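Could you join me in thinking about how sequence relates to backbone shape in a protein? To get us started, please write out a protein record for me. Would you write everything just below, so we can both look at the same thing?
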Amino acid sequence: MKNEILDDIFNDDLRSQLEPSEKVIWEGSPAITPFTKWSNILIVIIITLVIFNIKIKGWDFSMVVYPIIATLLTFWRLFKSRKVRYLITDQRIIFQLWEKRKKQFHTIQLDEIKNILLTDEDKNNGTILLQMKNTKIKPFRTYDFKNNNERPHVSLEMIENVEEVAKYIETARQK
């Protein structure tokens, strides 16, 4: 009998990275935060105002192009964040990231992590920054989804119940 979770379309690629002896502790993706919700509402308002402005005043390059660019950038960030997945096992953390218009998989062994830092975005969501033992090597790049800046450490972005997930990582590291 097949495991229902393995049949899920989003999890097949990520779970195919597992070794036979690995046990999954936590699986998740970036949460939809109030920032994301308000961004979507703002996009709808901007598009409505642009259409209204075109109907009343006619075509004006700056009144149309700049809002469209802002809208496309917001949609792109939302699209990228929806493709990201994280998997914490008893041996490592597996990252499914959207890079260069395709899925990329990266891993960090738990014994390579020196420290876990948390940043709270709001009361339920936050970011987990993983400080590596070898500070000269950053295995791959991660970005803040809100402003698209590169993080100084590898990160798990917009995680619900961030303190609980950080405890899962810390407990797995100590074993």
About this structure: Helices lie at 4-7, 9-15, 34-57, 61-83, 162-174. Residues 5 and 169 are 21 Å apart (CA to CA). The longest helix spans residues 34-57.
